Amino acid sequence: MGERWWHRKFRGCGYRLTVPREVIFTVLSKTSKHLSAEEIYIEVHKTYPAIGLTTIYRTLELLVEMGFILKFDFGDKRARYELAEGLQGKQHHHHLLCTDCGKIIDYTDFAKEEKELLGQTEKGLSEKFNFKITNHLIQFYGLCSKCQKK
Q: Which range of residues forms the domain containing residue 29?
């Protein structure tokens, strides 16, 4: 399959790519779900039973600090993780969260008006508070189509 993006990035930053780091990247790269540490551990444990849950937690926090993965709180009292970058590079997205079933939808197909509104909002906030905005996270809460029918 060739070299993965995280191999190059780790080398470029001068970090070692340890087995727990590599395995976590592999698990996250094979799913579109936002996995919790426990769910990642279950997947890792299938192939590498010697890697413990504590190692998973520590490694996840380190990878978040390094900017390789993103950590989210969707209100279910469990941190969830996803890769900061995919095969096509970084792809900014927002989340739609169903408050009934917990479904999480990545929202990436922004309309021109949405991009303009967000750009204006960021510019206004930057000027008002003399704050350089480098990123944002938007989460919408509501009911998915399946839960609306209940």
A: 1-88
